[in-house]
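for the record, two folds in this file. i put them one after another cuz i was lazy. first one right below, seq on top, structure tokens after. the second one comes after a little note so u can tell where it starts
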Amino acid sequence: VSAMDEQFQAAAPEPGAPCADDGMTWWYRWLCRMAGVAGGLSCAFAGLWSCVTINPLNIAAGVWMMLNAFILFLCEAPFCCQFIEFANAVSARADKLRPWQKAAFYCGMAVFPVVLSLTLTTLFGNAIAFATGVLYGLSALGKKGDAISYARIHQQQKQMDEEKLMGALEGQ
């Protein structure tokens, strides 16, 4: 079995694995992926710019931002990392994560360089990567309900409140 066959087998969903249907629509999934790629680009350029200094904290934040860019590309766009043998396997494993797990990982990964060195470069460079985490976090909240079901719930609560009020008034 060649290395390419192993990658395709690792990227293929397993029969017992949880399905990728996490309630996200196809366009929202692509929006999250595009935001991840844009976040990777912004982290890479801002990280490189941040490394052009003599301040060691800025250099450390810049290196971390370039690492963030690599991880974002690896998880969200493995076709950008075709020269890496395990890119498809990492992407398949990242696709199995729940949206809230991706949200926590991406937001935490984007906040660290800002905490390390609070500059405009680190702030703006990590903003799109953080926004990617926010998009995944919003998808973890689930779909919004329709107006009819909310109206029914509101009507039932209103009737229950009126019955309680009437019971309290009759008891006096």
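(here's the note) second protein begins now
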Amino acid sequence: VQEEKIFAGKVLRLHVCTMEGAEWLEEVPEDTTVEKLKERCLKHCLPGSLEDPKTMTHHKLIHATSEKVLTDTKTMLEENIQDRDVLLLIKKRAPPPLPKMADVSAEEKRKQEQKAPDKDAILKATANLPSRNVDRTVAHHNMRDFQTELRKILVSLIEVAQKLLALNPDAVELFKKANAMLDEDEEDRVDEIALRQLTEMGFPESRAVKALRLNHMSVTQAMEWLIEHADDPAVDAPLPGQTPSEATAEAGAASAEATAGPSSEADGEEAKDELTEIFKKIRRKREFRPDPRAVIALMEMGFDEKEVVDALRVNNNQQNAACEWLLGDRKPSPEDLDKGIDTNSPLFQAILENPVVQLGLTNPKTLLAFEDMLENPLNSTQWMNDPETGPVMLQISRIFQTLNRT
């Protein structure tokens, strides 16, 4: 008995088929390579074909069940071929012939014909058409509509965020810290060094404070303003938009809220009432403050102070836009700014269904960002770059832009 027969592996009986319909049985040991089996198959179905060395490389064996192309160098065992499996002997597809030079030239010519016209061609083709003036106010109105819609979204999201945060057992403490943070960067604070420089020059403190606020804390500009208005009878009048009585009332309200305690209510009601008061305090600190210089400039044109403040509020403290609003149809109105978006609208539903927005609404910092952007739109960039609030604002912007195109 030959040694190789004693130690031979398991013999597999394999059904081999061709695309032409031929079928036969091949018996091979499991250690037979795919290449060897393919050679036996070609001898069976294509006698004499092996004289061409390319015949082997132009055919492949495929496992019928798994549709896997078998690797020539692997054995039946390595390819996990089982007894009575069906294999397909298939001739590989010939690669497509390379295009002729004439065909390439024709294809390039076709692409050139389909190419969009350049600027010179467009001008030549439209030379005889009458010219039309583009209404540039359309873009301005579209931008205003975007700002108005975004404001409505923020108003509604603030309401949702307040309701969600009221359910947080730590909400009161979180908002106390947030309220303290707001106290640290109050816009009403005056640069003490700049104020001392002006008072040392002999200017009254109240007048120096007014000059610094009007001139964005610039000592040089404030000094020029004080010299220019030294003989002005209204130089000591309070800034438009805030009177001494309002300032006193605001301070008194803040003091009352700080000292008042909900000790007479139950624990749950106490926390709820305290949170409500904190919300009110934050909103009061975020109340709109008109640019004093813009107010004075617009009032000098003959507009009433209340109208000027309304115009600046609608137009985000932009003096030129506020002037156009005063001279135009005055839309949107100041009342429209406090209205939220329709909660049943597809836009608002899409925003609320976004998981990033849902998670962000449970973060007190997001509510503060909404409050700040509501009354100070110029601070939007700051919140867009914030790692906590930026992703939320990005999702809101993307959803708005996507639905606005449809």
